[in-house]
Amino acid sequence: MPAVSVRKGCLGAAFFWFQAVALLCMLTAACAALAQHNPALPDASITPGTIDPYVTPQNLHSTVCVKGYTASVRPDKRVTNRLKREQIRQYRYADTNPQNYEQDHLIPLSIGGSPSDPQNLWPQPRKGEWGAEQKNDLEFVVYKLVCQGKLPLAEAQQRIARNWIEAYQAWVPSHQHLLPKGRRGAD
Fold first, then answer.
1. Helix, strand, coil shares of the chain as percentages rounded to 5?
2. What's the whole-model pTM score?
3. Number of folded domains in the chain?
4. What HEC string does 35-63 produce?
5. Same domain, 84 and 143
6. Of 21, 121, 124, 164, which one is least surrounded by beta carbons within 10 A?
């Protein structure tokens, strides 16, 4: 008789653990689905981020770290505005007003993001908790860190492409002093 109760106990424990693991998997999948649908993050299947192969760690100080570099490689607004309208449709945004989006380089030009590859451009919502202003702060801080030699170029590019909000949380709060005076949190 004791063998039967042990089996019931083992089966009950196994069933409990199966349910716990199944619940954990469902919660993980739900969280991943929510993260993928965060309008502040680009859809990685459309905008994975691409780099300019011309910019390397060896030539930072003759490319991206030179004043005026981004202006020299930035694509014409007519091209990016046309792409923005196309991508708003592609992203299936409910709000289709182009004025509510900034055509953003996922990997910023200031750290060697590809200037004109559509896979590095996306219509970023201007408003919201994680709008264009926060991304611009991240870009400025990361540019400073890369050009000061405090952050490897490839790491900056990869982390921003993977999840720019996590990159912001990792770098901007601890480097507020690098932001222009009017953008610092304490001002």
1. 60, 5, 35
2. 0.79
3. 2
4. HHCCCCCCCCCCCCCCECCCCCHHHHHHC
5. yes
6. 21
